[in-house]
Amino acid sequence: MALTLPVHPDPGHDEILNSGLLQELSHAFGGPFHFVLPDRFDTNLAAFRDALDEYGVEGKVYFAKKANKAAAFVERCAARGAGVDVASHGELREALGHGVRGEDLVVTGPAKAERLLRVAALQGGLVAVDSLDELERVLLLEVPRPVRILLRRFPPSQPKSRFGLDDDQLDAALQRCAAAGERIRMEGFSFHLSGYEMQPRADLAGELVELCLKARDLGLQADRISIGGGLAVDYTSAEHWQSFLTEQRPDDYHAQKSFTASDFYPYHSPVAGADALRAVLAAHPHSTGDSLAVRLREAGVMLLLEPGRALLDGAGSSVFGVQGVKDRAGYGILTVDGTSLSLSEQWFNSEYLPDPILLTDRRTGDGPAYLACVGGTSCLDSDLLTWRKITFPARPRVGDLIVYPNTAGYQMDSNESPFHDLPLPAKVVLQRESGRLRWRLDHRTAL
After folding, report:
1. Dmax of the chain from CA atoms?
2. How far is CA 430 from its chain centroid?
3. CB-based contact 391:371 (threshold 8 Å)
4. What is the assigned CATH class of domain 11-37+314-441?
5. Which helix (H) or strand (E) holds 46?
6. CA distance 78 to 84
7. Residues β-bridged to residue 373
8. Rounded Cα gap, residues 87 and 67, in angstroms
9. What residues does each domain of the chain span?
10. CB contact at 8 A, 51 and 281
11. Hey, CA dihedral for 19, 74, 40, 309, is it positive or negative?
12. Which is it for strands 436-441 and 59-64: parallel, antiparallel or unpaired?
């Protein structure tokens, strides 16, 4: 029996699949496209804010823009008063251009370019300073207002991290900030932590609260900390995920490609999204004393977070047209009208595992199922959207659609390229208005 990894049931997504609209859009664009759902983004944002309210913690949610380039999500941030996390001059410009106030931006990333620092400072953005060298460059900026900064802490639990200031560097940075006077406003600390475990985030956040108290003794503001992102998304059930990991073998993949469990994103997480934030707030840093939420409240420290994937859970999918079907011994190879550059997990020695969905105008279930991998239209042997042999309910035909569900978070555009001079897939914004499903092209500013 072929491996399967179905996503959680989603009636709203099924309604879109069954509406006939995707076939019309495929015909109109003549190629692959992504659809995005800003209403889902709003729901996820509200859930994070509810979690902060439940624990009585003052906080602010920043959308990690790198997770998706669609303007629709930044527009929702502007409309809902949320922040945006940017790491380049282009991302900063996009956010400002779609209505996000400068004071609602946090600027992350290592060794930021001078023009990014300068524009962020002029617009009142909050800059996460990653090194002593960067701090000196911030102090040299000629701007009419104090530059708002966070000092990024090196994570001791991840000694191979390239981000942040170690203990000695942090002490030197604090002294430099105290001596800088009105040139900067040191508002607190941040960290970048890999992985999806909650306790390490709570542990490091607890340390940052103590650092805020230490910084205040030097006369610095230090009233907020940022725990970054890394809040997991739960795509599938525990049963399906465990079964997949236990049963998968090279024979399940085209060319007997081999994967280990560590190669994959954790597509099942028992604590995900806003519940992951709740887990961080409820945790006791280093398993001692009060919970993180209590420590934040008592110290008067605001919590900032920068989710990307978790704000985009269920907020979009990717659609490809079948361009050809080739039979091999025991399975087939579909070729679709796009490339794996539009399904980014494939470019990290990994695989986007949620089962793709066949949309066809034929009745399925009456004939034999069809086992096939899914290849892109480029001339590269490695260009496969799905190496795994998927069980489709019927043999796909040219003109059928293959839909990859829940791709808005990091999948649909992180690695896209107009390779072979193929146009980038369009992004279509879908919203229900007055009981009717309507669409428009995304309003991304021209570069």
Report:
1. 77
2. 20
3. yes
4. mainly beta
5. helix 38-54
6. 9
7. 333
8. 11
9. 11-37+314-441, 38-234+269-311
10. yes
11. positive
12. unpaired
The token pair at 178 is 């105290």
H/E run at residue 403 = strand 401-404
- Residue 347 has which token pair? 């470019």
Pick the CATH number of 38-234+269-311 from 3.20.20.10, 3.40.50.12160, 3.80.30.20, 2.10.10.20: 3.20.20.10
**pLDDT tens string for the chain (447 positions)?**
689 999 999 999 999 999 999 999 999 999 999 999 999 999 999 999 999 999 999 999 999 999 999 999 999 999 999 999 999 999 999 999 999 999 999 999 999 999 999 999 999 999 999 999 999 999 999 999 999 999 999 999 999 999 999 999 999 999 999 999 999 999 999 999 999 999 999 999 999 999 999 999 999 999 999 999 999 999 999 999 999 999 999 999 999 999 999 999 999 999 999 999 999 999 999 999 999 999 999 999 999 999 999 999 999 999 999 999 999 999 999 999 999 999 999 888 899 999 999 999 877 666 799 999 999 999 999 999 999 999 999 999 999 999 999 999 999 999 898 988 888 999 999 999 888 999 999 987 443
| C-alpha to C-alpha distance for 371 and 392, rounded to whole angstroms | 6
Task: Indicate the length of the chain as a whole number.
Answer: 447
**What's the whole-model pTM score?**
0.96
Tokens of 120: 């962020």
Residue type, 103: E
Residue with tokens 């102090």: 139
Residue 19 token pair: 């509406």
Write out the two tokens for 1: 């029996």
